[in-house]
Amino acid sequence: MIDHLMEKNDGLLKYMKDVRKEMTGEDRGDPEEIEELKNILKEDLDFIKNLIDPKHKAETIPATDQAAEEAGGASKQRPPSNPSEKRYILYEIVSNERNKIDVDKWDYFARDCHYLGMKNSFDHERLIKSARACEVDGEWQICYRDKDVFNLYDMFYTRFSLHKRAFQHKVKNSIELMITDAFLEADKHLSLSEAIDDMEKYTQLTDDVFEKILNDSSGKLDDAKAILLRIHRRDIYSCLGELISQKSKKELQVSI
User: Fold this and answer.
1) DSSP string spanning 231-247?
2) Do 78 and 62 form a contact (C-beta atoms < 8 A)?
3) Between the CA of residue 141 and those of 4, 24, 60, 90, 135, what are the distances in Å?
4) Distance between CA 86 and CA 141 in Å, rounded?
5) b vs e for 149-160, b when ≥16 Cβ sit within 10 Å of the residue's Cβ?
6) Which 3 state secondary structure label does DSSP give 200?
7) Across all residues in the chain, what is the average pLDDT?
8) Distance set, CA 143 to CA 2, 107, 150 (Å)
9) pLDDT band for position 65 (50/70/90)?
10) Burial of 197 (0-12, 13-18, 19+ CB in 10 A)
11) In this structure, what are the phi and psi dihedrals at residue 55, rounded to the nearest 5 degrees?
12) Helix crossing, 31-52 with 12-24: angle to 10°?
């Protein structure tokens, strides 16, 4: 998705060219400079994607990437893929695989608690102020003051509460299943599933698909429309029961 957005942003290279001119005082304007800007952009995009999803950073991010100052380039050093180096902690800010304490959660806590009318006792600003880069058993990681332990308890309790009271609520799950069934019926005529491999179609896959199905008069989407009309009438799927199992979802579906 990021690659697609960058390809469609015609003014991006011009912006990067202006930034480079401001930083280095150079404005060559030749084709080689444009290609160089494209390469710089690719490196930055790879870095951004690895911050969001750090699983493959070891293969895509070099340990160091320092531009030669004598060539007029801006001196910079990319975060290493080795946790024994301090700048590795940058991979724990957005998506923390180590302990799941990251700003992505803090963002949706604030948003979802606000719109759901739930109290959010977790104080992310206090936690940010106490955050420090510490070396633990030879690896650098983001650590917090011991007196913030109860604030961290509140963070995980907030997450639990949101899942229990909203994200995994039985009514929410029922409506989600109904929308899925409706979209599967509509896919025969709207080809919604093709959007997963086509970012141009994916950007057009917005909430108006729901209204498009409901307002269809061709008769082709009647089965999908019937399911969505049930949601409007609050005639939703009934929950027959709950169970806790160690089996995978696929194994459970087969057994049922």
Assistant:
1) HHTT-PPPP------SS
2) yes
3) 33, 34, 20, 9, 6
4) 8
5) eebeebbeebbe
6) helix
7) 83
8) 30, 19, 14
9) very low
10) exposed
11) -60, -35
12) 100
DSSP 172-199: HHHHHHHHHHHHHHHHHHH-GGGGGG-H
**How is residue 234 written in tokens?**
């609050």
* 204-212 CB contacts, 8 Å cutoff, 24+ apart: 209/183, 210/179
Residue extents of the structural domains in the chain: 2-81, 89-167, 170-245
Tokens 């082709």 belong to 220
- Measured over all CA atoms, what is the biggest interatomic distance in the chain, rounded to whole angstroms? 71
With 0-12 CB in 10 A as exposed, 13-18 as middle and 19+ as buried, what is 91?
A: buried
What amino acid occupies position 98? R
45-54 pLDDT tens trace:
788 888 888 8
- Token pair belonging to 154: 């509140």
